[in-house]
Amino acid sequence: MKKFFQEIKADIKFKSAGPGQKLTESVGERAPKEKPTQPALRRARQGPTDEAQMAAAAALARLEQKQPRARGPTSQESIRNQVRKELRAEATVSGSTEAPGSNTVPEAKEEGSAHLAVPGVCFTCPLTGATLRKDQRDAHIKEAILSHFSTDPVAASIMKIHTFNKDRDRVKLGVDTIAKYLDNICLHPEEEKYRKIKLQNRVFQERINCLEGTHEFFEAIGFQKALLPVPDQEGPEEFYVLTEGVLAQPQSLQRHKEQLLVAEPVRATLARQRRLFRPSPMASQFELPGDFFNLTAEEIKREQRLRSEAVERLSVLRTKAMREREEQRELRKYTYTLLRVRLPDGCLLQGTFYARERVAALYAFVREALQNDWLPFDLLASGGQRLSEDESLAFNECGLVPSALLTFSWDAAVLEDIKAAGADPDSSILKPELLAAIEKLS
User: N- or C-end of the chain: fewer Cβ atoms within 10 A?
Assistant: First the structure.
C-alpha cells in the first residue's frame, strides 16, 4: 500500500514538471510558447439576483442571532455618555454631507434638563440657609465663616479651625494643646509665665501655627502679639501675651475653651429637594444626573483601599457571612440615592438621601408631608419587602441605591379604623400646601 501511494505521488510530480526536453536540444532552439490570445473586452460581472440577496440577508441574520451580543453599558451615566457620542458623530457626518444651513442635533445638556428626575445634588448652608450646588458648597461656607468675624470673632475663629483644616488628627492635637494653654492660665492666674506663649516655640510651631484660624482665635479671646526680651539671647522674641482685662474674667477663657473642644466642622446639609408628582406609569423610571455617580477624592481613596483588601481576601477561604458582607460593601460605592414613595392615591413623593442614611430618615421624610403624621404606616420595597422604621439598616444595605420606588401602606389597625369610619383609604393624605405644588412626571 505504501508503494502504491509513492507511485501516485511520483506520477503527479512528473506531470507537474511541464513539457519534456531532448538532451541534444539547446535552450535557445526551443520555440517560444504561444500565449493564448486574450479577449479584447472582459465581460462585465453581473450583480446577484434578488433571490440571492434575500438568501444572504437571511443567513446574516441567523449568524447575528447565534453570536453573543456585547454587553452594553450598565449604568445610566455611561448610557447617556454613549448616546451623546453617537449624537456628536451623527452631527459631524450630517454637517459634512448636508448642504450649508441644514439643522444639526445640538449636544444635550445634562444638568437642568427637563427629563432628569432631579436637577442634581443640592445642599443647604447651615449659616445662611442658602441652597447650593455640589461645586458651590465649600466656597460658600468659607465665605460665610469669614463674614461672621465682624459679629462674633471667637465663634468664627473656632469654625475656621475645625472647617478649614481637613486633617482631623492634626486639628485635635492643636485644639488639645490650646486647651492646655488656657487650663494653665485658669489654674495658675498669678503665674506670669503661663500668660505668655512664645510663637517660635517648637510645640507651638508644630501643633498650632500650622492650623488655619488659630491666630485669629488667640487674638479674639484677648491675646496680643508683643516683642519681649529672652534671657541669654541678644534679640527679642515674639510672644502672645494675655491682656489684663481678660485676667479679671477667667471664666470667659474657660467658656471659650469648652466651645473650642466641642465644636464640629461646618458642613452643608443634604437638601431633600422634595417633589410631588401626579400618578404616572413612569414612576419606576429614573433619569439621574452625574452627581449620583461621581466620586470625590476621599471616596476614590476609600474605593481603592477596599479593592486592595478584596485582593487579599481572594487568597483565603470565605464563609457565607463574609461573602454577604462583601456584597453589601459593593453597594456602598454610591454616595446618594433618589427615593420615591407611591402614596395611596397614586401620587409620588420624591426625595434625595445619602446612601448611608438609615431607613428611619425616609420614615421621617414621609411623616413630615402627612396631614396626620402621628398615624403609623409601613413602607414596602420591591417584592413586598417591609422596611421597619426601627431597623438600623442603611439604604445601601437594603439595596435601595442609586434609586428605588417604594409603596406606602397603612398599618393594619389604622386601615381598619379608616374603613370603619367610612372614609376612603385611597384618598389623599398629604398636606394641602404640598398638593398645590404637584408636578407632572416627564
Answer: N
Of 213, 207, 208, the closest CA to residue 156 belongs to: 213
Name every residue whose Cβ is closer than 8 Å to that of residue 200 and which is 6 or more positions away in sequence: 237, 238
Distances (CA, A) of 209 to 25, 198, 214: 110, 11, 7
Please list, in sequence order, all residues whose beta carbon lies within 8 angstroms of the beta carbon of residue 348, skipping any fewer than 6 positions away.
276, 277, 278, 279, 280, 283, 340, 341, 342, 441
Residue 127, Cα to own-chain centre: how many angstroms?
A: 25
Cell triple for residue 3? 508503494
| Angle ∠(255,258,264) on CA atoms, nearest 5 | 130
Sheet holding 131-133, edge to edge: 131-133, 122-124, 269-270
CA 252 vs CA 136, 205, 245: distances in Å = 36, 25, 11
Per DSSP bridges, beta strands 237-242 and 196-198 are antiparallel
pLDDT, tens only, 369-422:
999 989 999 999 988 889 988 878 899 888 898 899 999 999 888 888 888 888
Strand 348-354, strand 377-380: pairing: unpaired
| 140-167 residue pLDDT tens | 999 999 999 999 999 999 999 999 999 9
Measured between alpha carbons, how far is 212 from 165 in angstroms, rounded to an integer? 7
pLDDT band at 47 (very low <50, low <70, confident <90, very high): low
Is 131 in contact with 122 (CB distance < 8 Å)?
Answer: yes
Most confident of 76-85, 91-100, 253-262, 332-341: 253-262
